[in-house]
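Researcher: Here's the sequence for the chain we discussed earlier.
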Amino acid sequence: MNLSNKILIGLVLGVAAGLVVGPEGLGVVKKWIAPFGTLFINMIKMIIVPLVLASLVVGASSLGDVRKLGRIGGKTIVFYLVTTAVAVVIGIVMSLVMSPGSGLQLPANAVYKGKEAPPLMDVFVNMVPTNVIQAMLNADMLQIIVFALFVGIGITLVGERAKPVESFFDGLAEVTYKIVGVIMAFAPIGVFALILPVVAANGPKVLIPLAKVIAAVYIGCLIHMSITYSAILKLLVDFSPVRFFKGILPAQMIAFSTCSSAATLPVTMKNTQENLGVSKEVSSFVLPLGATINMDGTAIYQGVAALFVAQIYGIDLSLSQMLVIVLTGTLASIGAAGVPGAGLIMLTLTLQSVGLPLEGIALIAGIDRVLDMARTTLNITGDAVASVFIQRAEDKVEKAGVSA
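Model: Thanks. This is the structure I predict for it:
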């Protein structure tokens, strides 16, 4: 039995066990089963920093040309921003069609104090680490990415004398890939232990009042995945969507249970390289960047949640306000990058941009974990689509260069 099937079985068994156990058995589950999920997450977190650092250094240096690095970087960022904007629009449309907030009353004690999202310029300033070791200790992905890109560019500019440094990072990257393989052997158990307490705590009775919100986000994510991504794969890069989704399925299931793009990154890289034919140099650059700034699933969540809050309070949003939500949701995906609880922080920023009350987030916060499962799955799927898109685009550039 392959790993995908094992993980799927672990996921299904975890959901079934969670429904059987229910809130009554949550204490036992948290004491004896949940620690195995935490152990699995800790093993993945253990390898994230060396994996991102080594793979990005190798990815940037192996391109061999600073201009090529700039070309790939530019295409990647534009791709991420465009698909994120489309995702916000889908979220708004889903909320307009399904009206999840109509007829709901906000509980009197529902109060949410919004966390302040960092100003965009502060994010750009703080991207450059003053202490690289501290950035690694804090697992600050944006700072690690910037440092790794500088090291990769430096290796490229120095040339032959920097080969030993490049060989070191190349060897470190290979070691981290092997460790990922070992960790993934425990994935079915880890997924079971992660999903069981979530289902037990958020049984059907808790979720029914907000079922429309959950449905709108999940359906929106499925639409973006099956239509937007499939169209990009089929029409722009001539890649079979069936082959793509089959190849990325293990990473999707890890994302669904961990709710972390960063934690899923090792598996996403493994799947894109082994199953989708993406080169190490492209995946090593595109995927770590996407895990930090690409948030299509979160963007759909922004669109649904913003209109949900407006509907609860009986506020009719104008077309210009909806456009502001699209723009804010797109830019906030970069502005909130690397910040814990990025989804709710981004939502705070989006609501503030059109003057909607922050108290509405209190309802969303209660089901945030359930929504996070869908949006993280979509986020890493978008990263994988981008890696295939960039790979095919680079293949065309190289063929044109050879023929010329």
